[in-house]
Design brief:
2 domains, DNA polymerase, domain 1, elongated, about 160 residues, alpha+beta, single chain, Ubiquitin-like (UB roll), 5 strands
Length: about 160
């Protein structure tokens, strides 16, 4: 067992972890932050995307011990300070960018990383950036619209599929 200390959603946490404990397990089982979903455990689906030191990371590919001293953000930390949905979350709701909701936390975290790096992405850039995230319900069209809306762009230009 190794003690790790990190900041998760603005709160410092310190816990003893096994050397092989993945971040998904640490967040869900140790910190009870269950918004980070485990979809595949093979880095294929993107349901577990979190931000570590400002970079989007698939939490199923990272050991908890690797986050020693890191700043970690999860979907639970994305809401506004008053608890209301942030711009991206609200756009996902407004543009029906979710159905079952399983992939949504990873999609929102991925969208936040994209918009941080590219505040006005094109439809093609959004689709390319989402390549590592799988949604089995929506067909991605409304997810793309939601991300474009969150970036302040006109979504009427997106062709219907």
């Amino acid at each position: 067992m190794t003690k790790v200390t990190m900041t998760v959603n603005g709160k410092t946490v310190a816990k003893e972890v096994r050397g092989n404990m993945l971040m998904t397990e640490f967040l869900r089982d140790e910190l009870h932050l269950t918004g980070t979903h485990v979809g595949c455990d093979t880095s294929q689906c993107g349901a577990c995307v979190i931000h570590v030191n400002g970079q989007d990371v698939k939490a199923c590919t990272m050991f908890a011990g690797e986050a020693e001293g890191a700043e970690v953000a999860t979907i639970e930390g994305m809401a506004n300070a008053d608890g209301s949905l942030n711009t991206i979350q609200q756009a996902f709701q407004d543009y029906h960018g979710l159905q079952c909701g399983f992939c949504t936390p990873g999609m929102v975290m991925t969208a936040a990383a994209l918009l941080r790096d590219n505040p006005k992405p094109s439809e093609t850039e959004i689709r390319d950036y989402l390549e590592g995230n799988i949604c089995r319900c929506t067909g991605y069209h409304n997810i793309v619209k939601a991300i474009m809306a969150a970036s302040g762009q006109d979504v009427s230009a997106i062709a219907a599929e």
